[in-house]
Amino acid sequence: MVEFALSEEQEMLRELAHEFARDIVRPNAEHWDDKSEFPTEAIAEAHA
Q1: 8 pLDDT higher than 90
Q2: What φ, ψ does residue 19 adopt, rounded to 5°?
Q3: Is residue 23 domain-resident?
């Protein structure tokens, strides 16, 4: 039988991505869109 559950490492990465989207992207997305700004600082933070 094929298992579709995420591994512990995958689940940690999923949670990290969710927190980043919730805490950084979502609160700023409208501003970035309205001002046609590329979120350089947010992208750098994502890579940190």
Answers
A1: yes
A2: -65, -40
A3: yes
pLDDT tens-digit profile of 15-42?
A: 999 999 999 999 999 999 999 999 999 9
DSSP 1-48: ----SPPHHHHHHHHHHHHHIIIIIHHHHHHHHHTT---HHHHHHHH-
CA 42 vs. chain centroid, Å, equals 9
Residue 22 counted as domain residue:
yes
Give the integer Cα–Cα distance in Å for 35 and 48.
25
